[in-house]
Amino acid sequence: MVGEIISEWWATSNRNGGRDHSGTVGDIERNQHFFDIRDDGHLYPDEEGLDLNDLRDAKMEAAHTMADIARDAGRSGDDHDVTIEVRTGKGLLFQAAFVFHGLKQ
C-alpha cells in the first residue's frame, strides 16, 4: 500500500518547486543533491536531482518533500514508514523519516 502512495506521489510531484534541475547521475555537478525515497523495502531513486546551494537548502527541500508524502500517506489510513535519503555524488548527507503507526479501528 505504501509503495502505491509513493509511486503515485513520485509520478505527479513537482517536488523541485519549479527550480531548474540539471545534470545526471553519470555527470554529477558539485551542488547536485538527490532525494531517494525508501519505504518498506522499496527504493525510489532520484535520478535527476536538484542543484542546491547548501545543506540548509537540501534540508528544506527534504522537509517539503516529506510533508507532501506524509499528507498523502495520512489520507490512506494505513501504517507507513518512509525515509528520504539525501545524497550527493560524494555519498549520503542525511536521512529524514516519518512513521505512522496506530491502532486499527
TrEMBL record:
Residues 33-96 form the DUF6894 domain. InterPro entries: DUF6894. Pfam families: DUF6894 (PF21834). This is DUF6894 domain-containing protein. It comes from Bradyrhizobium elkanii.
